[in-house]
Amino acid sequence: xxxxxxxxxxxxxxxxxxxxxxxxxxxxxxxxxxxxxxxxxxxxxxxxxxxxxxxxxxxxxxxxxxxxxxxxxxxxxxxxxxxxxxxxxxxxxxxxxxxxxxxxxxxxxxxxxxxxxxxxxxxxxxxxxxxxxxxxxxxxxxxxxxxxxxxxxxxxxxxxxxxxxxxxxxxxxxxxxxxxxxxxxxxxxxxxxxxxxxxxxxxxxxxxxxxxxxxxxxx
Length: 219
Description:
Layout: H1 3-31, E1 36-37, H2 40-59, H3 71-91, E2 102-103, H4 104-110, H5 112-134, H6 140-158, H7 162-173, H8 179-195, H9 200-204, H10 208-216
Parallel strand pairs: 1-2
Helix pairs in contact: 1-2, 1-3, 2-3, 3-5, 4-7, 5-6, 7-10, 8-10
């Protein structure tokens, strides 16, 4: 048994779990199709992840001629499928919650920041792994593509979405029963401040819990 045969056993296990995560999520959505609140982005990302994971598995054969393995190189080789596994666990719900509605819209915006942060790490880890293993990037075009992809993921992570905030506050509503009660006075107070000509500063002067209530109220 050569080093490649030995080291790729663990890589194969993690990749198999990542693919199983995506397929389980898709199967969950199909099984609960009558109770699914449809929203296309998580479904599109799930399909994309499946093909990326299969392509990564296919590309693994390209490293079989590597003989000078170090622990650091192997760790980077392992972290790429680990990242794919975590992405696949966030992209879709993996279990059907009985008779509850599967709200893909809420699911997507709840984990959006984590998803794009992990997506940003994926090309970075890929570049680091290849440089660690071979000392250089074999393809300049691939390097430019990975850099562009990292930039896309970083921009997607950094963009603040009002819908994402609203979904987070809705999810938090169950843990804070008085959030709804605080929304109305917050809305009234800010409305009076805006009428008086005090714009952004009005919201900034609100206590944090009232700002959350205001966001919950979709203002």
